[in-house]
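Hi C.,

You asked whether I'd gotten around to modeling the 158-residue construct. I have! Everything is below, sequence then structure, no commentary in between.
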Amino acid sequence: MDWAGWALFGSVATTALTAVMIAAQLAGYSRLDLPLVLGTVVTADPDRARVVGFFIHLAIGQAFALGYAATFALVHRATWWLGMLLGLLHVAVALTVLLPLLPGVHPRMASHRAGPRSTAVLEPPGLLGLNYGAQTPAVAVAAHLVYGTALGLLLQVR
């Protein structure tokens, strides 16, 4: 496995994915602010949360990049199209499993079952992240295709 490539290019791919998601948010395509959502697990201050959340997302991205690198090593091939396929699998899991589970563990996120006494400040993302806008799933797919393509192009199979 390409350990040096994984360490460097996992960070590059995660930064690219995050940049696509933030650019889409700033352009009004989605209200999902992933660094804010992740950072508010640790701190209530939104400015600090975005910084902390970026580094949390970077760490999570590194873990997923390890899975991509292991898959490339297992099939003895790293290509852009295989990276894209893994990106589609990755985003499918993120949108259908990880995001809907987030309200159950996030201390500052409301859930659909919390009731009127909830003091949560973040809206739950819902299935496919649709609570953050109708275009959120498309943005997430595009961002994960960028992530997978970057890893498929940059990682080497030894």
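If it helps when you're writing up: The helical segments are 3-26, 34-39, 46-75, 80-105, 136-154.

Thanks,
B.
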